[in-house]
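Batch manifest line 182
LIGAND: inosinic acid
JOB: complex structure
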Amino acid sequence: MNKDILKVLVDEKQLDEMTTRLAKEIDNDYFDNSEHVILLAILKGSVVFMGDLMKKLQTPVEIEFMKVSSYGATTKTTGNINIHLDLQRKNIEECDIIIVEDIIDSGRTLSYLVNYLLNKGARSVKTCTLLDKPSRREVEFNPDYSGMKIPDEFVVGYGLDYDEKYRTLPYVGILRPEVYNS
Ligand code: IMP
Ligand code: MG
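JOB STATUS: finished
ARTIFACT:
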């Protein structure tokens, strides 16, 4: 195990089971109505999750990416959402968008993005998160699809980073607090 990881919170087998279950839930809702279903991954944290999830879907989907930030090299949210890469689609009013996110913390990123995409004209917008820290909410927000609720710990791996590191770990682990407190 990586020396900076205190404990594995979600191992590879659990991640595999979670993505299988989430893909089934999405298929149940979209398979019969799947003309322009868009999986919209929020860069960079959700790329690993998105890659696993999309392979398990029966529903035909298109993929898109947006890059937003609310965090710098810190474990605290700033509350400011900056769009670095926007969604460009001509037929957005025909699109049923599923935002794919790595983790919900304050809830600000996803509540902002859902409104943003509906204002842009999307036909529908739902959200799918791998992890959720409900105890950290600053705005009310409930995802439509959620892999797992976790306690208030800073986690990395399976796409999630601290200061751009640890994204390639195949599991989700709790980062040793010494790493960000030093
Ligand atoms: P929110 O807007 O506060 O809900 O922030 C969500 C974003 O914060 C996620 O997309 C992550 O980029 C980041 N984040 C929140 N908690 C963690 C964590 O424990 N590890 C890594 N990134 C996190
Ligand atoms: Mg993120």
